Amino acid sequence: MIFIKEKLLNRIEREYADFKSKMISKERNYIFDNSYEISFKSQIYDAVDNSEISNDVIKYLLKVPNSLECLYDIWLRAEISTIADMTEFFSSKIINEYIL
Prior knowledge:
Blueprint: H1 2-24, H2 28-33, H3 35-49, H4 55-63, H5 67-78, H6 83-91, H7 96-99
């Protein structure tokens, strides 16, 4: 389980680096208007790393085109307000309702 989780974490890290690179090239107002997305996406790695996310969820996330974007979308649909809640959410079976 650790190896597959590390694979997901490495992917999230790369996707965040790409996201950050694209965001930095935008206008200041665009960046400001998207600060919520920036804030969450910058914390998602830690939320996944600190969770007991299931292998089935990890396998699903490794198949989608962009794991970071998928997790951000789940964050929005689940209406979770804190990163601590997201870490707990990743560890629960409730996440299966959103992706499996």
